[in-house]
Design brief:
The protein is mostly beta strands and 155 residues long. The chain contains 2 helices and 11 strands; from the N terminus they run E-E-E-E-E-E-E-E-E-E-H-H-E. The relative contact order is 0.16.
Length: 155
């Protein structure tokens, strides 16, 4: 079974945290300490049982799944990248999972697929270890912190 790593922005201080995602009701949490196991859940007003460390509430819209690596490090859904494609063109967009394609794609600010290659974005390739160098592109921001990076794209 494949382990799925996620990233989310903390509700309490806005910092990014990585780990396992779980949901209770409409709240989303990231377990950032792998030693923590939640066996009993007794919600209080704060949303977490006092004294339990290792997981935090995150902004649901900020949660992205790890899909691979690139020249600048890990790549999560929601990351904004500049990527080189087969024809030599460079495109800027954000990483999104398209159910219809069953793959990760580079999408424009309108959510349209602007780039996908089998060896770059397919689910099969994201499951196995990417070759050294990974995706040919660079993460330049993300849709939560830097949405203006997508504004240069035209309709």
């Amino acid at each position: 079974m494949r382990k799925i790593k996620c990233r989310g922005k903390r509700v309490d201080n806005g910092e990014w945290v990585c780990g396992d995602k779980f949901t209770i009701g409409d709240k989303v949490y990231i377990i950032y300490n792998p030693e923590i196991r939640v066996f009993e859940w007794r919600p209080q007003e704060s949303g977490c049982q006092r004294g339990i460390q290792g997981f935090v509430e995150v902004i649901p819209e900020s949660v992205g799944q790890l899909m691979g690596s690139c020249e600048t490090g890990e790549v999560y859904t929601g990351d904004i990248m500049t990527c080189k494609f087969g024809g030599g063109g460079i495109k800027t967009g954000y990483i999104e999972y398209f159910e219809t394609h069953m793959s990760f794609v580079l999408a424009d600010k309108f959510g349209r697929n602007i780039g996908r290659t089998r060896n770059m974005w397919s689910v099969e390739d994201s499951i196995k270890e990417l070759p050294e160098g990974g995706i040919k592109g660079k993460v330049i921001g993300n849709t939560m912190d830097n949405p203006e990076l997508l504004e240069s794209e035209t309709e």
